[in-house]
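Cont'd.
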Amino acid sequence: MSTLIASDQRVSQAIGDFHGGIYPPENKDQSMQLPIGELPVPPVLVFPLNQHMGAPAMPIVALGDTVLRGQKIAEAVGGFSAAIHASSSGTITAIEDRTLPHASGMSGTCIEITTDGQHKAIAFTPCEDYRQHSAQALIQKIRDAGITGLGGAGFPTAIKLQPQAQFAIDTLILNGTECEPYITADHSLMRYHAEEVIEGALLLSYILGEPKNIILGVEDNKPDAIEALSSVLEQRDDADNIRIITFPTKYPSGGEKQLIQLITGKEVPSGTIPASLGIVMQNVGTAVVAHRTITKGEPLTSRITTFVGNALNTQRNMYTLLGTPIHFALEHLGLAEKDFSLEAGNKLIMGGPMMGFALKSTEVPVVKSTNCVIAPSKQELPPQPEAQECIRCGMCAEVCPASLLPQQLYWYAKAEDHERAQSHNLFDCIECGACSFVCPSNIPLVQYYRASKGAIKQIEQEKVKSDHARQRFEFRKERMEKAEADKAAKREARKQAAAKAKKIQAEKKAALEKNPTTEVKATSDQTAEVATAVDPVAAAMARVKAQQNDPVAQQAKLERAVSGAKDRVTKLTEKLHAEPSKKQKSKLEEHKDRTASQLKQAEIRLQDAEKALAEHADKNPPVTMTPTHSSATTGSEKAETANDAAGSAIERAKANAAAMATMSPKEKLQKSITSLEQRLAKAQARFADAEKENNDNVDAFRTGAEKLEQKLATAKEALEKELN
Amino acid sequence: MIELITQHPILSALIALGSLALIFGGILGFAAVQFKVEGDPIVEALDALLPQTQCGQCGHPGCKPYAEGIAKGEPINKCPPGGQSTIDNIAELLGVEAPSLDEEHGEEADVKTVAYIREDECIGCTKCIQACPVDAILGAAKQMHTVIVDECTGCDLCVEPCPVDCIDMLPVEQTLQEWKWTAPNKMSNLIATDRAPLISNSDSAPSSASDEENAA
């Protein structure tokens, strides 16, 4: 290998290094003995809607639909999501909750395709020269193809290829490190598809606006891959700015921030992304898939997955269709242990042994980020010895690649002291597991950190929710208080008006008794009073006019106004005529004046109201009521109009009631029976519970249930009668 | 005048101190008006710690009134939805010892719940709408009501007023996004001899180590 590096200047050693790191047994040879194999099309394919970071995709197929290979079956929801495509032809046989390939072992919505074995594909539209297209168009194609990072985290690739404008990208790094033990998917890809890796690098470089440096970072435990890549580079003349940088094998050099530190010597600041240093990093597999998508038009439907572990007869890398259930792959490769099952204590790990997770079911499928499936024998992966107390040896701090203090974090995580944990940069932990690996007390440190991170995130979410609830509660309180205040203000206004009227009355009386000459003043007061009274009427009329878009209610209102005005006019006329019979001569004149002015007001009001009604009727011809334009001095006429309005309303109500009654008695009865049945069931359940608990109210529950039974029986009888 | 002051040092001291007092008094008076703190800051801080379910189990019509109550010296252990963690936080804020939850006001629930209206049984009486402290129930008179799940705090104040008993408190289902790792079992048996599994494992431990070496 040393000769290789010497012979080619394209390959150089990394200049930087990162803190810590560990040297776990590599276990990579088992799966590299054979070239990449191909898994056949399984009878069923399962596609979880949430196999990437971000929002779950939305299915765009229905049960029973026939789909072809490459057909989109689920659409990305929003920007931070990824589409899903069928990886073979067949029929959609289920869209339902299935166990997910996720550390939680929870279920989520999956689309199941029963394959027809023909593996027919839709017509792809290849692209001869992607340089004819704009970077934006290519990114859209990558988004449509549902490409996510194939390295493990499943970050939607299109987003990573569109760094924010303030970051000038000068370096593209393709991550071919694959530092975790056992996994060789990227290794085999670089060895057997070196040409495509380089093509992919050039494509991504074009999309990112030709950054100055294109670097392939490869660990020095893959000499064959380095050789393959460098020989491709040598043959090409368009790849002058691509360099291969190698570095000694150490875990976790494949971590994004660690690899940047290795290659550039720069450390990505806490809380920022590599783009802030002008760097974009992609997995080599992602680059190859992006290239295939652009040139051949094929979406992401298959990937290379390492199947490894002593429980398997054949350990090798396989081209695997996305959605292939794990058990199908295991059966195809052959299980050395005949009684291999998760129930019997065997473990099945998706991802690497350091950062992967144990599967809870063999039914789960291979998804976009499944780079490795480990089926270890029981000797290969013995159960973790029980954790003991921390002996404060400090080895964890020595190996931490993020230069954290794992021991401190452990104390804080254990004590649930989230504030201190955060101030010790808990969120910079990349959960690589180096600390747990070296811990002589076998403390599952990473699990503590993950739990602590989860708890902090949950608290933050709850805080947001409770703030929202507080806002709503306070708004409601404000609203209620305002309504209450409005009510109180109205009450107060009414009270004051009444008091004022009383006072005026009293004053007048007193004035009259004292001196009849003050009469004039009193009358003027009175007119002023009347004038103020006109204003609300005018306002009401204005409101009435403004609200004319609701014809029926409006007409009713106007009718009411007309009849009210008429009523008042009648009363006042009567009063005016009756006045002379009054004994007190001195009072007579004043009263007459007052009544006359009131009558005048009332007449004006009546005219206004009638005019409004007329206008309303003109505007809304279908409403039949027409107002009378007579001087309207008789009470009987007013009563008639009022009766008409009320009568029609009553008629309508009656008709409605009759319609309701005759609608469908059978249905009604059935409804009541079902509801009675439900209630009976509930009552019986309650009764049973009460009996069990020896409740004091057992008798009450029993009678309740019996009554319901009787009711149900009568209802059933009624229904039978109805049916007969 | 100057002569008088120079000849009577006591007088000059009095004048100097008096004028200083006037100046500082003025500054303090200005500051009191300018930087006046609206409301009681401790109430705000307490309110921020309470869970905002507005359930009224503490006997107050909401979390803020209870925060005001605590500020006036009420016991801090009356909040079942907040549970022990809220009590601990309040105790830390107030610098007092954390009591355990007063069970008189209810027990701490292990699972979060939200209200669910069995819609075909709802008669549209609006009683639950009036009871909801966060306006999380939607509906109108004689119309079916429903709960806006995202807004529901799970206070269960709507269950009691329902005349047809059609409101259930259902546990919130955990979604994949909300899932979090659980902490490993805390080591409860600290004495070595209490750890039965460890002693039985001691035979297999060396063999597993050698396996790992073989693998390497």
